[in-house]
Design goal:
- Chain A: Keywords: Oxidoreductase.
- The complex is a heterodimer of chains A (462) and B (494).
- In chain A, a hairpin with a 5-residue loop joins strand 9 and strand 10.
- Chain A is built from 15 helices and 15 strands.
- Chain A has a 7-stranded mixed sheet with strand order 2-8-7-6-5-3-4, sandwiched between helices. Chain A has a 4-stranded antiparallel sheet with strand order 11-12-15-14, covered by helices on one side. Chain A has a two-stranded parallel ribbon with strand order 1-13.
- In chain A, helix 3 packs antiparallel against helix 13, helix 6 packs across helix 7 and helix 14 crosses helix 15.
- Helix content of chain A is 39%, strand content 13%.
- Chain A has 3 domains: 52 residues, no CATH class; 113 residues, Aspartate Aminotransferase, domain 1 (Alpha-Beta Complex); 269 residues, Aspartate Aminotransferase, domain 2, CATH 3.40.640.
- Chain A is globular, with a radius of gyration of 25 Å.
- Chain B has 494 residues and is of the alpha/beta class.
- Chain B folds into 2 domains: 264 residues, Type I PLP-dependent aspartate aminotransferase-like (Major domain) (Aspartate Aminotransferase, domain 2, 3-Layer(aba) Sandwich); 126 residues, Aspartate Aminotransferase, domain 1.
- Chain B is 34% helix and 10% strand.
- In chain B, the strands form 3 sheets. A 7-stranded mixed sheet of chain B has the order 1-7-6-5-4-2-3, with helices on both faces. A 3-stranded antiparallel sheet of chain B has the order 10-12-11, with helices on one face. A two-stranded antiparallel ribbon of chain B has the order 8-9.
- The longest helix of chain B has 20 residues.
- Chain B is globular.
- Classes of the chains: A alpha/beta (462), B alpha/beta (494).
- At the A-B interface, helix 1, helix 2, helix 3, helix 4 and helix 5 of A face helix 1, helix 2, helix 3, helix 4 and helix 5 of B.
């Protein structure tokens, strides 16, 4: 039996020590009617055979290393330096669990402390947790945190309409049986969606004594970055109303743009996948969550703190665990226990090896390539690009034919994985495509996309 | 020597990875948008490699030795799993690719759903939840939605939870807006049926059962408990953290569980990653299947031409509670779990048998050395009391001393119903020789407790750091690196 080391002789000896005759005797307490049901599973494969099977399944997919990819929409293809996987594959890291025993877990604990420090550096916040599942669940937890911080007396949460639609969906799932109203996210016209500053004003007008929080994406789902100076005013208005400002960020964008800590955000969440984590069909990714020190006791999840050992040496431990489920049970700040530690480690290694300079370079390359692409597409007849607001590495294009149709031609005729069909997110945005460019897209790829879009053009008559 | 923080290696101007120069014209940045500083470390690649390698050496993992952390199933993680998850055809897929371009990935998810259905005896499975506790939240939301649809949503607000349950059970229930009612355990470690009966009324949303429970015992009152709750209109939630005892032994779905989460990182050998990523798929009975979180993978009947060449697609369960995360779940974890299940097939029963054999053997070896509060046949884990009569030594001391003997400690001080609890889960991948060596270390620690208790109380003595001052950490709250004016250590000093 693979991975079970016992010989028949050892098994017999162990049963003798236990004092039973057969293995089956160990299950006498299982109700007989249900005991030992057949397991109708395919017969076992050897390592060689499973490799064949999985290679065949993997080859049945078209991957982003084969076709040029312009999909973003919350999951981004970035360069991953070789050192990351090399280090992640240290068995001491990936075969350990939550560092409950700090004396034999200093590696994980110190790496998490460094991760927390780097997330604070990126976001401009004072404290970060050791990760959440992903960006969307981190946002849901941030909303719950804001409700607690306003003592449950404010049932309303204002959600900017161009937050990632799946993030909004997750918030809805989390609060569906609580006394909470989510407002502001839907019912906008195409015209309004095109004007983020107008949306901001509208949402600010709904701030009142019932509001627990306003959630702002930075950049938004459509790639746009709101002016930090304007967001500073928003923060003031939110705080005057006694509410909290939650920002949903892309960490790569924060290498360029004024971090939310500087413009007054109270809680910052985001998807950390761009920080050295493969696309992997959507997961596992990395939820980022940071806040101000004043709110640390309501921050969910693991937090690592510095201390000293018996001999006065610096060391790290899980701290503030009285917030957590294993101590507080139903009064805990969250039910989270296992987070995504290894992904946080990947991000810590990524941010270390890219450093201040490398991360800026990555963000700048994304910015320049996306702007080059946007400008070239804008010159094509039949396409219109939303360019009136600053954007990072994604932008909206109105297409002359249904997006699904264009994507099909791109895929079948040009070996290109086209953009995200925004009609899926909001019917108002039907006929609009969200395109993303990162440092991974070469100029040849960008030009090939432009050329293909030009050739595809409007549908031919008849 | 403690390892400096990566920030302490930083030298202005030093670089790790260099990126190419832009191959497109540079676009101007908008004015007033840019940040000034970016206080990340400035280090070389070799700094990074050595730093994190040294950190790894301060860690203990399953690859290093025995890790009997109860309730966590720290079994060996097959290396083939890692390679398969990294195949470019999996690792480089974008979640929003057209289903037509990701049929292999969807097939894998579909079959994993089917395997988990078969192992747990459920009608349907959703792979969405990111971890066990998120699976719990999803399951409880499903129970709430079910009652709501029957016009009982406002009435059924009470979740019954045994006092031996994981802390996540009450925490997840509270997040779903339910009131938690604790059910005590009886003298044999089972759910106290009398106490349960008293709480069974028309306000019960459900009962959360961990079986085997956190004492490692198969609940002898299980069938009666399920019937009591079902009879009053409540549903049964199964905490599948302990599924490693049950594969091919019994199927919770067949026994009346309505919804259960699986922990792929426990039962199905996907690595624990120093605290995740895990994955917490949820299985549901017929009546709860329509409420599963979505999307899930199904065969696209319209586009399937030949039955032996199914076309897969993502669909929404009819009355789904919604998404619990963006995209399709922890796919990289699914690849590993799929690999593991395919390598075992129906022989997964032997995995559970060996896990239970190992636990009972180790229990037999430790009996007589340490008190056993609930002494009967255990399943995949068991609980002893970390006390040596007549000495001041506690469970914590024993745990720390085990490190000096080269072992990871068991889970300590859980479950809460056993004072000085040490919860030991050996898993099936450990040999008799390893179990013997651990039992011998435990015996010697008990001896030391009598002859030299201070040595045990001050343990560990051989780890990179000694006992750490947790109270101080909580008081001073240093939660991130803040640059100081002190000179930075150089590589040579480190």
């Amino acid at each position: 039996m693979r991975f079970v080391p016992h010989t028949e002789e050892e098994r017999r000896e162990m049963l003798r020590v236990i004092g039973v005759e057969r293995i089956e005797d160990l299950f006498a307490d299982v109700p007989e009617a249900y005991r030992f049901p057949p397991l109708n599973l395919p017969e076992p494969l050897t390592e060689l055979e499973i490799r064949w099977e999985l290679e065949a399944l993997a080859e049945a997919n078209i991957h982003t290393g084969q076709y040029a990819c312009f999909l973003g929409a919350g999951a981004y293809r970035h360069f991953i330096p070789a050192v990351i996987d090399e280090l992640l594959r240290r068995g001491e890291f990936y075969t350990a669990y939550t560092p409950y025993q700090p004396e034999v877990s200093q590696g994980t604990l110190q790496a998490m402390f460094e991760f927390q420090s780097m997330i604070c550096a990126l976001t401009g916040m004072e404290v970060a947790n050791a990760s959440h599942y992903d960006g969307s669940s981190a946002l849901a937890e941030a909303v719950l945190m804001a409700l607690r911080l306003t003592r449950g007396e404010r049932p309303k949460v204002l959600m900017f309409p161009t937050i990632h639609p799946e993030y909004r969906a997750v918030v809805h799932t989390y609060v569906q049986h609580l006394d909470v109203r989510l407002e502001g996210e839907s019912g906008w016209t195409l015209h309004q969606l095109r004007q983020p500053l107008l949306l901001l004003e509208e949402l600010e007008a709904h701030l009142d004594a019932e509001t627990a929080a306003l959630v702002i994406p930075y950049p938004d789902f459509l790639g746009r970055v709101l002016p930090p100076s304007r967001l500073r005013e928003t923060a003031d208005r939110v705080h005057q109303a006694g509410a909290l400002l939650i920002a949903v960020v892309n960490p790569i964008a924060l290498a360029l743009f004024e971090p939310p800590g500087n413009w007054g955000a109270d809680i910052v969440v985001g998807e950390g996948q761009p920080l050295g984590i493969p696309l992997s069909f959507g997961g596992p990714y990395l939820g980022i969550m940071a806040t101000r020190m004043a709110f640390v006791r309501q921050l969910p999840g693991r937090i690592v703190g510095e201390t000293v050992d018996l001999e006065g040496r610096r060391g790290y431990v899980l701290t503030l665990s009285t917030r957590e489920q294993h101590i507080r049970r139903e009064k805990a700040t969250s039910n989270i226990t296992t987070n995504v530690g290894l992904m946080a480690l990947a991000a810590a290694i990524y941010l270390s090896v890219m450093g201040r300079h490398g991360l800026r370079q990555v963000a700048s390359l994304c910015y320049h390539k996306a702007h080059y692409l946007a400008e070239r597409i804008a010159s094509l007849s039949g396409y219109e690009v939303w360019r009136e607001h600053p954007f990072f590495h994604e932008f909206v294009v109105r297409t002359p034919r249904p997006v699904a149709e264009i994507n099909r031609i791109l895929y079948e005729g040009y070996q290109i994985l086209g953009g995200y069909d925004l009609g899926q997110a909001d019917p108002e945005l039907a006929g609009h495509m969200l395109l993303c460019a990162t440092e991974m897209n070469t100029r040849e790829e960008l030009d090939a996309l432009v050329e293909a879009l030009g050739e595809i053009g409007p549908a031919r008559e008849g | 020597m403690p390892e400096p923080l990566i920030f302490e290696y930083s030298v202005p101007g030093r670089r790790g990875v260099e990126m190419p120069e832009p191959d497109v014209p540079e676009a101007p940045f908008p004015e007033g948008f840019l940040r000034e500083d970016l206080p990340l470390p400035e280090v070389s690649e070799v700094d990074v490699v050595r730093h994190f390698l040294r950190l790894s050496q301060m860690n203990y993992g399953v690859d290093k030795g025995f890790y009997p952390l109860g309730s966590c199933t720290m079994k060996y993680n097959p290396k083939i799993n890692e390679e398969m998850a990294r195949l470019p055809g999996f690792a480089q897929l974008h979640p929003y690719q057209d289903p037509e371009t990701v049929q292999g990935a969807l097939a894998l998810m579909y079959h994993l759903q089917e395997f988990l259905k078969e192992i747990g005896g459920f009608a349907a499975v959703s792979l969405q939840p990111a971890a066990g506790s998120q699976g719990e939240l999803a399951g409880i939301l499903m129970i709430r939605a079910y009652h709501r649809d029957r016009g009982e949503g406002k009435k059924r607000i009470k979740m019954l939870i045994p006092d031996s349950a994981h802390g996540t059970n009450p925490a997840s229930s509270a997040m779903a807006g339910l009131r938690v009612v604790n059910i005590p355990s009886d003298r044999r470690g089972n759910i106290d049926l009398e106490a349960l009966r008293r709480e069974c009324d028309e306000t019960v949303a459900g009962l959360m059962i961990t079986n085997p429970n956190t004492l490692g015992l198969f609940d002898e009152n299980l069938m009666e408990a399920i019937e009591l709750v079902h009879r009053c209109g409540g549903l049964i939630y199964g905490d599948g953290a302990n599924m490693n005892a049950l594969m091919g032994i019994c199927k919770p779905g067949e026994m009346g569980f309505d919804v259960m989460h699986y922990n792929l990182h426990k039962t199905f050998s996907t690595p624990h990653g120093g605290g995740g990523p895990g994955a917490g798929p949820v299985g549901a009975s017929e009546r709860l299947a329509p409420y599963l979180p979505g999307p899930i993978v199904a065969i696209d009947r319209e586009r399937t031409v030949r039955p032996d060449e199914p076309v897969y697609t993502l669909v929404w369960p009819e009355r789904s509670i919604g998404r619990v995360r963006a995209f399709h779940g922890h796919f990289g974890v699914f690849v590993r779990a799929y690999t593991y299940i395919r390598m075992h097939g129906p022989r997964l029963r032997e995995v559970s048998e060996a896990a239970v054999l190992n636990a009972n053997y180790l229990l037999a070896r430790l009996r007589g050395i340490y008190p056993v509060p609930y002494d009967r046949l255990c399943k995949h884990e068991f609980v002893i009391m970390g006390k040596v009569p007549g000495t001041p030594v506690r469970a914590l001391d024993i745990s720390k001393r085990l490190m000096d003997y080269g072992f990871h400690p068991p889970t300590n001080y859980f479950p809460l119903i056993v004072p000085e609890a040490l919860m030991i889960e050996p898993t099936e991948t450990e040999s008799k020789a390893t179990l013997d060596a651990f039992a011998e270390a435990m015996r010697r620690i008990a001896e030391e407790a009598r002859s030299d208790p201070q040595r045990v109380q001050q343990a560990p003595h051989t780890t990179p750091v000694r006992r750490l001052d947790e109270a101080r950490a909580a008081r001073q709250l240093i939660l991130r690196y803040v640059p100081t004016s002190e000179p930075r250590p150089t590589l040579a000093q480190a």
